[in-house]
Write a structure and sequence with these properties.
Number of domains: 1
Distance between the termini: 23 Å
Largest sheet: 6 strands, mixed
CATH class: Alpha Beta
CATH superfamily: glutathione-dependent formaldehyde- activating enzyme (gfa)
CATH topology: glutathione-dependent formaldehyde- activating enzyme (gfa)
Shape: globular
Order of helices and strands: HEEEHEEEEEEEE
Strand content: 25-35%
Number of strands: 11
Strand order of the largest sheet: 8-9-4-3-10-11
Radius of gyration: 15 Å
């Protein structure tokens, strides 16, 4: 995947430096799509856990936002079903990149976004219950008019803060 796409979707800032996804028994977490055809495991460092309110996340989830856990690629592995993962890249609207959505070709459920350096885990696909909470809201300038943010998490009008 083009580097500019990863930059737009997963720009890094060490909001969660040294955090790891951990279950109660300290092992890797597992996740899957709706039909279970895609299964994965993650045991790595977390870059960020954000709630993305952009209009394309709203469209792709059918909800007010997408919950993304972004981590380092080296902690990710497919257990089964990698061949079922499909990628849709929506056209560029104003400035690159386009919007990337990964999903299961059988059930249409969300699937992890994986490139050579990072992984984006749709938080709702986790089968385990990690000890991790969202850290921020992003693209709140585009949030759904019918949704009110009522927590105290930091809010960013556009994407996540850029690295320095």
């Amino acid at each position: 995947m083009a580097a500019w796409a990863a930059d737009r979707l997963w720009s890094c800032r060490n909001w969660s430096k040294d955090l790891k996804l951990k279950t109660e028994n300290e092992g890797a977490v597992r996740g899957s799509c709706l039909c279970g055809g895609i299964q994965y495991e993650y045991n790595g460092e977390i870059i960020r856990f954000s709630l993305d309110h952009c209009s394309r996340c709203q469209k792709s989830t059918g909800s007010a936002f997408a919950a993304w856990i972004v981590g380092q690629r080296r902690g990710f592995q497919w257990i089964t079903g990698e061949e079922l993962v499909r990628r849709y890249v929506a056209p560029v609207r104003e400035t690159p990149p386009g919007y990337i959505r990964t999903f299961c070709s059988v059930c249409g459920g969300p699937a992890p976004y994986v490139d050579e350096s990072i992984v984006g885990l749709p938080a709702g696909t986790l089968d385990d219950k990690p000890e991790l909470k969202p850290e921020m809201h992003v693209f709140v300038d585009r949030r759904a008019s019918w949704f009110e943010i009522r927590d105290a998490l930091p809010q960013f009008g556009s994407g996540p803060p850029q690295s320095n």
